[in-house]
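Record Protein ARV, 308 aa.
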Amino acid sequence: MICIECSAPTETLYTEYSNKYVQLTECKNCHSEVDPYVEIDNVLLFIDLLLLKPGAYRHLVYNSMVVSLESFKEHYKDQRRRMPYHKSTPRLKVSIKNIFNWFKKYDTIIRLWVLLVVFEVYLTWVEEEEIYHTRERVPFNSVTLQLLMIYVNKWNALQQYMFFLAYCVLDNVLFHMFTLRLVKSWMPWGKTTNYSSQIVSYTILLSQGVKIFPILMLIWPYDNIISMSINKWIANLYLIESMKIVTNSSYGSIMQLLVIVFLLRFTILNILVLALLSMITGDNLINNVLVVLSQTYFGLRTFVSELL
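=>
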């Protein structure tokens, strides 16, 4: 637990007396209340998250999630003491119980990730179909995915949904995995902080929640697909700022890390999409790579000429 103002560690957030009166703890470092969000409504907390208030992020990541993980850890140890492991216990039963406990421990994070992926699948599906039907070139959009859409549009609705589900899940897994690995290996914060993986995961989740806002565009459609691309860039800016708030690292180091993550994720995703495209068309993988490179060059050249 930390003070959301100065990030100094603290032992308690509040003191609860016998008459149900709650007194917030005062920080020994900055002499302000350690975490006023303990008494704030969730709606106001959500608004402060959208406004990128540092205290809101620190409250959820350090004083809410970490405390929950610590309490589950103690509860799990207590269960292990009451129900000791015996050699006669079937391994399958132990494995199932461990998996159940893992899902129970990270219940909130898993629920939010599933919700985010479900929305992202639908939005990606709508966006790619819009690009395919309007033939509109979107800067920095995947050329390989646009080529594959020629064949994906011939599939039935279930097959299309499963394709975009696999694509979005893989995209999120790669982004999540590379970000966690680089944060823990490059940043001093990742090496000295307990629950650093969970903290980064929750921070990414909270910042990426803005990506579901284009759902409103399906109700009140915009004139072109660029609006969705702008929303993605806003989500990236939210991610940079939220990582800065939580890790106290410099903007330069965070942006370097995210650029490397983007390049790794982009490369792997495009290789896999090209491999799938080669399987469908029966063409050589190298031929498809050359087609993608030529179309990417043409798209960037057109984009630069329009800017100039």
